[in-house]
């Protein structure tokens, strides 16, 4: 930042998670408190980390989503002058504080309401929380448009596409190709996957991420959500969205144009590149993190996804083709099934079976007119999925 320039005011929703801590790392590498003011930080269960972050970065406001942990957070920040709140209303208050850039990094549908609140007041939204677009799609985009802020994709695949998609060439986009690592079970048989535990499923081969997205990568539900996310973000038809398994996670995604060209963005599997891009956009920042070493890499591999072993991909295509609230149904039922898998109540393969059954049961739900319809569809999907779990 040149001297005389004002500090940038930021809020990080989900600062204690994997994306949240990477965001704070980028901010600190770019000058920390010298260049940035932190309007608000939010977390859920990790009170000690939230308090430590708020003190370290001089945040004005710290919020835990867990109402029962309010006193604990208040005590941890005693004497600091940092304002404290808890619960859903606290999250909304954090999102509504006057920060020009908001990182949306709460996990799951819990991130939708606060991210919407930030979008409605016109903040630039750095979107890691893919569930906002999967569940609320065009209504979420409309909130961004009406608010007047920018939507800056952080999910590595969508950030890659955002980097190589020139606005003047959008009419010539033929397809986008989302890369997928294939997860820890890329070469496993259905029979081997049937008996895996959450601890085995969470071990991603390339990326260090939160528990839920790591397991979603193993089932390829992460890629399923990303297909729906990409459809909304880039305004494409379902048949323009392809998935290719690329086990090294070095090509983060690609855009195919009408002249046969394919443009890709490459980098180490490190989310700080995507976060730094969203933080500096439309400029680029200087980030001292690892660089790709092509000689060491030697090769890049590709294979078609196996939809028999990974039915999530077909379920995403079905949700995209049906449109309406089917994204919310896909995500809500998946979140319920995922929580049941993490608790050991259902097996790994049952997650996709449950989502499919819920999509069958709720295929006729009408399209959403308001956000309340989206929340109602999400609730119905969770309730229906819970009914299938003994
Ligand atoms: N991790 C990654 O590299 C990537 C993540 N994403 C997406 O980014 C989002 C965040 O993922 P990730 O950082 O891995 O997740 P984590 O689980 O690591 O972190 C989630 C954050 O949300 C908070 N949180 C948890 N539950 C709630 C709740 N009910 N209400 C409010 N806040 C809550 C957590 O608080 P606490 O920890 O204090 O409990 C934490 O701050 C997800 O949508 C994910 O799909 C996308 C691409 C890559
Ligand atoms: C880093 C990121 O964006 C994740 O969504 C990642 O892509 C997960 O890897 P999979 O390709 O295995 O789902
Ligand atoms: Mn991703």
Automatic annotation (TrEMBL):
Task: Please give the coiled-coil regions recorded for this protein.
Answer: none
Q: Where do the annotations place NADPH binding? A: 16-19, 46, 129, 131, 210
Q: Name one Pfam family in it.
A: DXP_reductoisom
Output the GO biological process annotations, alphabetical, semicolon-separated: isopentenyl diphosphate biosynthetic process, methylerythritol 4-phosphate pathway involved in terpenoid biosynthetic process
Asked if the record carries the keyword Nuclease, the reply is no
Q: Which domain of life is it from?
A: Bacteria
User: What reactions does this protein catalyze?
Assistant: 2-C-methyl-D-erythritol 4-phosphate + NADP(+) = 1-deoxy-D-xylulose 5-phosphate + NADPH + H(+)
Residues binding Mn(2+) are 155, 157, 226
What the entry lists under InterPro entries is as follows: DXP_reductoisomerase (IPR003821), DXP_reductoisomerase_C (IPR013644), DXP_reductoisomerase_N (IPR013512), DXPR_C (IPR026877), DXPR_C_sf (IPR036169), NAD(P)-bd_dom_sf (IPR036291)
What's the Enzyme Commission number for this chain?
1.1.1.267
What positions does the domain 1-deoxy-D-xylulose 5-phosphate reductoisomerase N-terminal occupy?
10-137
Task: Name the pathway.
Answer: Isoprenoid biosynthesis; isopentenyl diphosphate biosynthesis via DXP pathway; isopentenyl diphosphate from 1-deoxy-D-xylulose 5-phosphate: step 1/6
Is-annotated flag, keyword Isomerase?
yes
Q: What class of enzyme is it?
A: oxidoreductase
Family label: Belongs to the DXR family.
Name of the protein in its database record: 1-deoxy-D-xylulose 5-phosphate reductoisomerase
Originating organism: Sinorhizobium sojae CCBAU 05684
């Amino acid at each position: 930042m040149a001297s005389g320039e004002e500090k940038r005011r930021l809020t990080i929703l989900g600062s204690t998670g994997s994306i949240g801590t990477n965001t704070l790392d980028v901010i600190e590498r770019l000058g920390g408190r010298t260049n940035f003011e932190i309007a608000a930080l939010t977390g859920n269960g990790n009170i000690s980390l939230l308090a430590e972050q708020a003190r370290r970065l001089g945040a004005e406001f710290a919020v835990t989503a867990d109402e029962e942990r309010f006193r604990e957070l208040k005590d941890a920040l005693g004497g600091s002058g940092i304002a404290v709140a808890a619960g859903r209303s606290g999250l909304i208050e954090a999102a509504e504080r006057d920060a020009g850039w908001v990182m949306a990094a709460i996990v799951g549908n819990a991130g939708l309401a606060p991210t919407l609140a930030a979008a409605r007041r016109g903040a630039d939204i750095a979107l890691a929380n893919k569930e906002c677009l999967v569940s609320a799609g065009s209504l979420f985009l409309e909130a961004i448009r009406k608010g007047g802020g920018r939507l800056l994709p952080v999910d590595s695949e969508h950030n890659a596409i955002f980097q190589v998609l020139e606005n003047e060439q959008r009419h010539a986009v033929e397809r986008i190709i989302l890369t997928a690592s294939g997860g820890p079970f890329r070469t496993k048989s259905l029979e081997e996957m049937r008996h895996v535990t959450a601890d085995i499923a969470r071990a991603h081969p390339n990326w260090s991420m939160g528990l839920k997205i790591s397991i979603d990568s193993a089932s390829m539900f992460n890629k399923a959500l990303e297909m729906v996310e990409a459809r909304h973000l880039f305004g494409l038809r379902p048949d323009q969205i392809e998935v290719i398994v690329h086990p090294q996670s070095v090509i983060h995604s690609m855009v195919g144009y009408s002249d046969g060209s394919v443009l890709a963005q490459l980098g180490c599997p490190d989310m700080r590149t995507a976060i730094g891009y969203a933080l500096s956009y439309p400029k680029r920042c200087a980030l001292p993190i690892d660089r790709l070493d092509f000689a060491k890499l030697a090769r890049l591999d590709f294979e078609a996804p196996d939809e028999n072993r990974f039915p999530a991909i077909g379920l995403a295509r079905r949700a995209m083709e049906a449109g309406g609230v089917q994204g919310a149904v896909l995500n809500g039922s998946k979140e319920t099934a995922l929580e049941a898998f993490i608790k050991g109540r259902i097996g790994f393969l049952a997650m996709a079976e449950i989502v499919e059954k819920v999509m069958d049961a709720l295929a006729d739900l009408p399209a959403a007119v308001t956000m309340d319809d989206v929340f109602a569809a999400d609730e119905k999907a969770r309730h229906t999925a819970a009914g299938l779990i003994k």
